[in-house]
Design a protein that fits this description.
Layout lengths: L10 H4 L14 E2 L9 E13 L9 E6 L7 E5 L3 E8 L8 E3 L23 E7 L4 E6 L4 H4 L6 E6 L8 E10 L14 H5 L7 E4 L6 E4 L4 E8 L6 E4 L6 E5 L2 E6 L5 E4 L4 E7 L7 E6 L7 E8 L29 E9 L3 H8 L20 H17 L4 E3 L13 E5 L4 E8 L5 E5 L4 E6 L2 E2 L5 E2 L1 E4 L4 E7 L4 E7 L2 H5 L3 E6 L1
Length: 506
């Protein structure tokens, strides 16, 4: 998984979740009780260095970057239709911003430095204000040097509640975090290194739930829980097996979906993705059941145990309705939609995958590291591939969208696509690389309408879609939110290496 040393506490203690603080510890809430639907919710967030108990004892606290002194930052809960005003103070030694991931905000509130706002300078503050248009599970994080600022702990959950939430015994948020810790228990400072950028990103050696390495989560037989999962990792993909329990997916990326069991029985979340689950506790009193992450073959580990109390809540789970009300999203018209092709290239092994798919990026093109590869003798091919590899490694660019690698440092981001406002559009994304890419579009939610030419079963609404190697995914949406919007891979090292662009809605 990683070529970096594990902390001395051993792999099982960190990744396989040996004894630590309970994952059920409540996140601090920022919510004003008793306000009506028209109320303004005012929140203050301060981004600053701090210390937090990531690793279990005997390790001490770890230096991290925090919102209001905690990792993750405080859970902000508002009601759908309310207005949220967040004053963000920058207590870091560098610039920052806050992006409201998945929330359909006005363009000026989107938190992308040099695109929608000037970054918040050291010691300065910025006020974000927007309506909570959609109910659902969202989150907030910086978009300034995200590969490091997020990797050091700057993120938190934003929960927008339905006016009449579905009935459950408990509404629980699990913020899934991934850390690269050294033997000392401190965070490795090798952010943005070439190996991570050119491969699958910064995958750590320590997984946390709500900022702690978890041991157990207390439950009772017959209990029904709404479990909100948020993947805040830079690069780690989760595939959670609930150990004989049968979770039902009721929302993806904050948007309701027809309740259903996850494909293959496992809940898969790429970086930045969210899922709302209904989990009925069907185990026997006093028993334990392990939730296991099985995404990386041969590197499976126990995330956390469901620990049943000795006394049941009830003998069987209740049969309460699970269906969530739809959010006010405009339905795309596929008959009139424009069609736009996007090809993702680059990374180690990228050009070989592109050629396997029949994609052509052309001799010497910037669309992958092996741009000069042509049919012919094996030795010639290998020489060409190695030459392309060296050119890519020696340049700052590693990843490309339609042959273009973005350069955040230049602060010049010309639109890769211009879409007519209030019209329907289809974007067909082809992943001609050897790696997964969770592709995120700001300012909008979209329907995932096909994978590899086959219509999706549920046409789910998402804002981040995980595109597998060699896969082609089509999304459709109405471009009803004007402005210049970031479109990028949410493996944050891939974004830093060039896999991002701007989609203009005008």
């Amino acid at each position: 998984m990683s070529r970096f040393p594990m902390p001395a506490l051993t792999r099982r203690a960190f990744v396989a979740s040996a004894a630590a603080g309970a994952a059920s510890a409540m996140l601090p809430l920022l919510r004003q009780p008793g306000a009506n639907a028209a109320a303004m919710r005012e929140v203050r967030l301060r981004a600053a260095p701090g210390r937090t108990q990531l690793a279990p004892e005997p390790f001490g606290e770890t230096s991290a970057w925090c919102y209001n002194g905690t990792v993750p930052g405080p859970e902000i809960r508002v009601r759908q239709g309310e207005r949220l005003r967040v004053a963000v103070e920058n207590g870091l030694a560098e610039e920052t911003t806050v992006h409201w991931h998945g929330v359909r905000v006005p363009n000026a509130m989107d938190g992308v430095p040099h695109l929608t706002q000037a970054p918040i300078a050291v010691g300065e503050r910025f006020v974000y204000e927007f309506d909570a248009v959609d109910a659902g599970t969202f989150w907030y994080h910086p978009h300034q040097r995200g590969f490091e600022q997020v990797g050091r702990g700057l993120y938190g959950p934003l929960i927008i509640e339905e006016p009449e939430p579905i009935r459950v015994d408990r509404d629980v948020t699990w913020v899934l975090g991934d850390w690269r810790l050294m033997k000392s228990g401190e965070i490795s400072d090798d952010f943005g290194n070439r190996h991570d950028i050119h491969h699958n990103g910064r995958v750590g050696n320590t997984v946390t739930i709500n900022g702690r390495v978890p041991d157990s989560f207390a439950v009772r037989k017959g209990e029904r829980i709404r479990l909100r999962l948020i993947n805040t990792a830079n690069a780690r993909i989760f595939s959670l097996d609930f150990a004989g329990h049968e979770p039902i997916v009721i929302a993806l990326d904050g948007q309701p979906v027809s309740p259903h069991a996850p494909d293959g029985g496992q809940v898969v979340l790429g970086p930045a993705m969210r899922a709302d689950l209904i989990v009925d506790m069907t185990g026997e009193p006093g028993s334990r059941a392990s939730i296991v992450d099985r995404f990386y073959q041969g590197l499976e580990y126990r995330l956390v145990d469901l620990a049943y109390a000795d006394a049941p809540l009830r003998e069987r789970a209740p049969d309460w309705p699970m269906e969530l009300p739809a959010n006010p999203l405009p339905e795309p018209d596929l008959n009139t939609a424009s069609r736009n092709e996007v090809v993702l290239t680059g990374g180690m092994m990228g050009e070989m995958v592109a050629q396997d798919m029949g994609e052509s990026v052309g001799p010497g093109a910037p669309g992958g590291m092996m741009g000069d590869m042509k049919p012919g003798g094996m030795m010639g091919d290998m020489n060409s591939m190695m030459g392309g590899m060296m050119r890519m490694m020696n340049s700052g660019a590693a990843w490309f969208i339609n042959g273009v690698a973005a350069d955040e440092g230049s602060h010049v981001m010309k639109p890769m696509l211009t879409l007519a406002r209030d019209k329907s559009h289809v974007i067909a994304m082809t992943n001609a690389t050897a790696w997964h890419h969770p592709m995120h579009l700001h300012g909008h939610s979209f329907r995932v309408i096909s994978r590899n030419g086959q219509p999706t079963r549920r046409r789910e609404w998402q804002d981040t879609v995980l595109v597998s190697p060699r896969e082609k995914v089509e999304i459709a949406f109405v471009a009803d939110n004007p402005g210049d919007w970031m479109f990028h891979c949410h493996v944050l090292e891939h974004q830093a290496g060039g896999m991002m662009g701007v989609i203009r809605v005008a």
